[in-house]
Amino acid sequence: DAGVIQSPRHEVTEMGQEVTLRCKPISGHDYLFWYRQTMMRGLELLIYFNNNVPIDDSGMPEDRFSAKMPNASFSTLKIQPSEPRDSAVYFCASSLVGGAQSINYGYTFGSGTRLTVV
Amino acid sequence: EDKVVQSPLSLVVHEGDTVTLNCSYEVTNFRSLLWYKQEKKAPTFLFMLTSSGIEKKSGRLSSILDKKELFSILNITATQTGDSAIYLCAAATTSGTYKYIFGTGTRLKVLA
Asked: Which of helix, strand or coil describes residue A29?
């Protein structure tokens, strides 16, 4: 099992540019989560999906952020236009609720995308 | 508003010391509490706690949950430099939907 795969690993972009982060969850997992981590605020839940449907996007900071999950094996988080305060590590995580893995292991996180907006 | 608070925010100890990390939570429809260790990359799972008073152990790490007082502790005995990391706790809530609320973490540094 390759785990949760995120790309790119690092992204440096100029203010105002569009940024797209990608995530491939673990096959068979029915929940997918996007988190943002900063020193000041820790891990913040941005949005999560259940069976490809967005369930709770109350953590999305503003309209510049959008997320999609067109199928069970792929999700994107887009920021347009990007701003320096968006600089953070963005994590994707997936889980299988009710399955043995979720009961015993909670989420499985990807390695994250470190975004720097200059 | 659901929240999870960890303390201390950071901690520096010497190898061999014992440390206790704290996590308090206020969430609706609490389901479980999880501890994660985060080194350079993604958080990795340590423990999931669902019942009060039952200690979970893994080597030098142990954790316990108090659902009456709404807190959990993570103990690390005989610390080693490899224990240096950010330790995160998260409370799972099923209030309408299913999600985890994370604390900001405790940054532990173990000196040789």
From this structure: coil
